[in-house]
Amino acid sequence: MSSPASPLRIGLAGLGTVGIGVVKIVQRHADLIAARAGRPVVITAVSARDRTKNRDADLSAYAWETDPVALARRDDVDVFVEVMGGHEGPARAATEAAIAAGKDVVTANKALLAHHGQALAEAAEAAGRVIRFEAAVAGGIPVIKALTEGLAGNRITRVMGVMNGTCNYILTRMQNAGLSYDQVFEEARQLGYLEADPNLDVGGIDAGHKLALLAAIAFGIRVAFDKVELEGIGNVSTEDINLADEMGYHIKLLGVAQLSGRGLEQRMTPCLVPAESPLGQLQGGTNVVVLEGDSVGQIVMRGPGAGEGPTASAVMGDVIDLARGLRLSTFGQPAATLQQAVAAKSATPAAYYLRMTLLDKPGALAKIATCIGEAGISIDQMRQLNQHGEADEKATVLIVTHKAAPADIAHALGQFGQTGVLVGEPVALRIEEV
Ligand code: NAP
Ligand code: HSE
Predict the structure, then answer these.
(1) Rg (CA), the chain
(2) What is the pTM of this model?
(3) Residues of the chain with pLDDT under 50
């Protein structure tokens, strides 16, 4: 009779939303996991800041470490699961300590990997260790696995996605309830949707981290978060959401990454997408990731991007892979072979939605049209909206361009200011083909 396989032992750093989700799955599905992994998966030790906190789970069987670095170094830990968060401090120190101590690492921490992914991957591979991070991108959607495994035979041409549930909640709620950004932001705060630093969500940073991680795997490049063009949703107005809707578009905080002869393009910006597309139809906190490969065509993955169950599900998928003996490079190929991507000098041309307020006087629109023409941009649609009373002497103008280079759009916007007819700042949003 063969001896029972030795258990895989987890050291769990972080007992918040994700950490407690992991505890619950390990406890609830012990038999199922052992059957699938071919060996038991157990938690031996845990760490968090406050030992006295009531955590809605029985932790009595686990050793407690106040210091996550000490947890990472314990002899009875095979896999260090980091679900504390933050790209410096204890998360980074403990992850580095775990690798140095010969442990594999599973993390949900996109900020840590967006900033230090290359160095951590190199250190792990030099030590013969593995770092897995399914939970860091799009929560419960197994997109890392899809890219590194299922689609490994494809040249990936484009990765897109709505990858911040909080922003999508805010934008869809503004649209459906007709509420202002400030009203819905406050609602999201009260519902506990916002990160401790809300700018990580609404500033597009969190989603930018995720996009940079996907791009690294998709294109075989070093993580280049510093090359992501970032714009948050703070300036998206109900007026633009409604006008876009009338034209058959929805506004999303959309991430797009592509590598072409132009270089690497990574954008996380508010965009118009067709209302009927999978991205346009996305409601609330759900995420969608679109992967395009030269052989497979387009894959659309949709699901919960955050929360205890979905995120812990992704963590456990990684842990079970390690228990099974699956050992892949962090970004799908050895870290030393990842290329340093050159950022594209100019982004792929796109149609643009332009909205502006003009003085309502003869020749005003002609001056704006001239700026657009002189920038080499062709107008597809133009409408004057009767939102202002006659006494106000202002007119809102909506222009949709044919495909134009972003630099030409920026030039035209700069010229608008010289016309003497522009009131306030114009709005320019990319219309993304999806
Ligand atoms: P959380 O609820 O704030 O929990 C963080 C945990 O880390 C807490 O238990 C905290 O201890 C512990 N911790 C913080 N600093 C520590 C330190 N210095 N030493 C020991 N423990 C420390 O965070 P979360 O939502 O679970 O997120 C964890 C990670 O998963 C983050 O990287 C996040 O970006 C990522 N993530 C989260 C979600 C989600 O839906 N929540 C989704 C995807 C990815 P105390 O409890 O004692 O304060
Ligand atoms: N703040 C993130 C979101 C959590 O709203 O999507 C999951 O990464």
Answers:
(1) 24
(2) 0.96
(3) 1-2
